[in-house]
């Protein structure tokens, strides 16, 4: 995958993820706003219902007292009926129907104590009750021989009594509302009644939230309010209460909700958590996908680099073997045993070199799959170091350098595999030699700690930057130096070192500074 395509995929995936997060955040915000609007509408309905119930209860109380006093008075002091008559004659059946509608007016003298105040003085108050009376009379008209009527025979008579509901109700309510408005508000409604009605209304609507309430008169608080009620124009819901027949009033019923935000958030918390969970999963998947894309791209580049290095590593021995074979085939040389032997030795050495490269690749592959059988035994670290030095000292001497040992550790016995541990030291020293532009200068130190032995391999080579130092033990990684083949290798040596040391329950790390050389530390537990 080329770099531009990778960047395009990352940009598109990022935009998609940001879009999903934005939509989810907008949905949550919109849900809270919708819940808040729905909540306010419900609260408004609750307040209207509570105010209506309190007003109805107040009128009902006066009505019950009025009816009780009306019954105790007995027969009204006076009454009169105002009648309206209508006569209808059926010519075929000779039936006469007379409709009679009247209004019965009854006056009652009610004592002033009924109204709980002295506004009306000591005189009795006249309360008028109106009753509707309807009479339907059907008569049969009888005629004599001369054709003139002379008598009526009653057939049926229906009498109905009823209230003049609309008129009397309006008169009653208006009268008693005017009387009630003269009373202080705490005598008209109690805090307990308001609280009970609000709780019932909220319960009926399945709203479980704490509230505070109060009644205000002309914008000022009254004594009818809950203990913690505080007026806040932005959070308080209100409705008119104790309205007159024209709908006007000086009183307002107010309700506030101290934990309104928590309630609104809690109402969508379940869905919000599910949304957050899936968004988090998408985010983690996205990050993982981006990481894998970048990692695969790096691995692809590293493998390409590795193949190029391996190809370069094999080209020289293959070319050498080719030349040696061609030389042996030359008739003038085939008879020269000394030259043939030298060419055969060259073929053997180059073949051995290629075999070592292949073995190194197979070894690191087996290590990763835990298929490499590493048996351990008691060995002396100093002996292993001396043996490893002999593998590289000729190369160092040939380049005019040196490799010195400073073996100061007192306890040197460890549990290790002699062959693999030797290869580890050889790889680290070979690395120090390859990355020394001038004559390689390598010093090896050992020192004992409480439970470990530390091997320090220090060179004065080109060193490494901090970025390279972080990746130096990764498989296939090699520092780019302009010409990729100016230092032979395939990026497996230090990866092999790390795997072997970790298998020995040890640790390996490095310190380096560009241009000032590197120091590798190998720490192993001692017996």
Q: Could you provide a short overview of the structure?
A:
This is histidine kinase. By secondary structure, the chain is of the alpha+beta class.
Descriptors for this entry?
about 525 residues; Helix Hairpins; alpha+beta; 12 helices; four-stranded antiparallel sheet; 4 domains; five-stranded mixed sheet; about 50% helix
Topology:
Blueprint: H1 3-73, E1 79-90, E2 95-110, E3 125-143, E4 149-163, H2 165-180, H3 185-188, H4 191-204, E5 212-217, E6 220-225, E7 237-241, E8 251-256, H5 260-267, H6 269-329, H7 331-334, H8 337-368, E9 377-380, H9 381-398, E10 402-407, E11 413-416, H10 418-434, E12 441-448, E13 452-459, H11 466-471, H12 493-503, E14 507-512, E15 518-525
Parallel strand pairs: 10-12
Antiparallel strand pairs: 1-2, 2-3, 3-4, 5-6, 5-8, 7-8, 9-11, 12-13, 13-15, 14-15
Helix pairs in contact: 1-2, 1-4, 1-6, 6-8, 8-12, 9-10, 10-12
Keywords: Kinase, Membrane, Phosphoprotein, Transferase, Transmembrane, Transmembrane helix
Transmembrane segments: 263-294
Enzyme class: transferase
